[in-house]
Amino acid sequence: MGGPQEPAPQWRQDRARWKQAYDILRGQLERGEYKTGFPIPSLAQLEQQFPDLARNTIRKAVDRLEREGFVRAEVGVGTFVRPSDEWEPTGD
């Protein structure tokens, strides 16, 4: 399920890093690595998964996932996976 045990991604130069992080996280969601109703890793945990990205870069990827309905954030609680029938990817 992603995490510090996996090697850090090799970032492409022709695509923004936040979009690449978004692609990785979206792929994990689509493969069912994070289950509906359960939290995705916290920003601190995602910083371990993506050690060479700034927290704001990771936050931008997670914010995009939230805008597209993949996850919902609950302040002070966590960010939770929404049912796949609520996902509305933009296609970018």
From TrEMBL:
Task: Indicate yes or no for the key word Membrane.
Answer: no
Which residue numbers delimit the HTH gntR-type domain? 15-84
User: Has the keyword DNA-binding been applied to this entry?
Assistant: yes
The record's InterPro entries line, in alphabetical order, gives: Bact_HTH_transcr_reg (IPR050679), Tscrpt_reg_HTH_GntR (IPR000524), WH-like_DNA-bd_sf (IPR036388), WH_DNA-bd_sf (IPR036390)
Q: Which domain of life is it from?
A: Bacteria
Question: Which keywords does this Swiss-Prot/TrEMBL entry list?
Answer: DNA-binding, Transcription, Transcription regulation
Enumerate the SMART domains for this protein.
HTH_GNTR (SM00345)
Record-linked Pfam families? GntR (PF00392)
Q: Which PANTHER family match?
A: MANNOSYL-D-GLYCERATE TRANSPORT/METABOLISM SYSTEM REPRESSOR MNGR-RELATED, MANNOSYL-D-GLYCERATE TRANSPORT_METABOLISM SYSTEM REPRESSOR MNGR-RELATED
Spell out the protein name for this chain.
Winged helix-turn-helix domain-containing protein
Origin species, per record, is Streptosporangium amethystogenes subsp. fukuiense
Please name the taxonomic classification of the source: Bacteria, Bacillati, Actinomycetota, Actinomycetes, Streptosporangiales
